[in-house]
Amino acid sequence: MRTALIIGSLGAFFNLYQLQALFPALVERFGTTATGAGWLTMASLLGMMVTAPLTGAVTKHANPSHLLVVGFFALAAINASMALTTSQDVLFVLRLGQGIVIPFLLTATMNLVSQRPSSFVPLYVTGTIVGSTLSRFYPAWSVDAMGWELGFLSSACLMVLSAVAICLLSKATGAELMQRTERHQTSVTYTRRALTDNTLIIAYLAGFALLFTQSAVFTALGLWLAQEPYHWDSQQIGTIYLACLPALFCVLTASVLRRYLSEVAIAISLIALIWAALWLISTTRMSIMLSVALFAIGTYMFQAVTTQLLSSTRRVPAGVAAGIYLSCYYLGGAMGASLAAYAFAIWAWKGVIACIAIAQTIIFCLVMGARHCAKER
Residue 318's pLDDT is what? Predict the structure, then answer.
């Protein structure tokens, strides 16, 4: 079960940010502009935002291993199609298709996480970190080394291998997803509960702000490094995202931090770390790799906090809560990617920082409002 969980989260996130480091290749193959690159990144996030609320109800009786296998084969077919297309419009549609498929994989893995949150949350977040990093690094490396067609065909082969691995694990262990209680209640009842639970509302808002910030920074960073004075190619840009991997150690040891600090204190500390990293990136006085590493530690540790909040609820099935959370999460990602590309094209990096500051301020006010309403009840 642990291996399937990691493969599920890693494989799903592997498809999410494939184009963020490929701006030079997109310009060469499709004539893409900076704003167009933002829309291509946003497409998968938009598909996830639309699909995620439905996945809990659609998949509540599905065998998670079968769901993961079918999902990975679908992603393999989409990657193969991306390898062959020469139209930016078709590429946008394919990216949208990836976004439609990915929530089914993530809902299956979140159902596994909800069974043993304290043990499985670090594994889930580990999969998201490795998957997100490879999502940016591997396409940049493979496209630069093998060309667009072979690069994405190799990604399709990796998805097929993931499907085969899940299938073999399922046969070896015979593991089935444990059923949650209260299945006699309707999906409407569960959705109403999920939308009125104060803890979940805070998790939804925090998830929106988290991926808004992350998508905005990584989208703008890919555009920035491709232009003056850097003129980096796709492989060089992709290498930057390897700086996210040190966050693995922090996530896996987060339980030690929770012994001494409350969730609120941890969240405030991580927000401060994120803004310190953004300041370092803006000033360029220190290594970009170091700045990205600090930013990744802050954002992925914050993701561990929100995932813990999400998986600790017992009032609604994990699939329902995860569906709403993922919708908010990827709405933030879609808006962050598109607004960052637009802001960067007009106001450069300062415009991106302003977008992030405004979004986080609004979310902070909403979170404080939700906490105040909960105290009055």
Answer: 66
Contacts of residue 81, defined as CB under 8 A and 6 or more positions apart, other chains included, come to: 90, 94
**Amino acid letter at 279?**
W
Closest CA to 368 of 264, 276, 270: 264
pLDDT at residue 175 in the model: 47
Lookup: tokens for 5: 């969980």
Domain ranges of the chain: 2-173+187-376
Backbone φ, ψ for residue 372 (5° rounding): -65, -40
**pLDDT one-digit tens code per residue, 107-133:** 888 777 766 766 777 788 888 889 989
Q: Which residues of 130-146 are buried (b: 16+ CB within 10 A; e: fewer)?
A: bbbbbbbbbbbbbbbee
Encoded tokens for 209? 């702000």
DSSP per residue over 229-247, as a string?
TT---HHHHHHHGGGGTTH
Specify the CATH class of 2-173+187-376 in words. Answer: mainly alpha
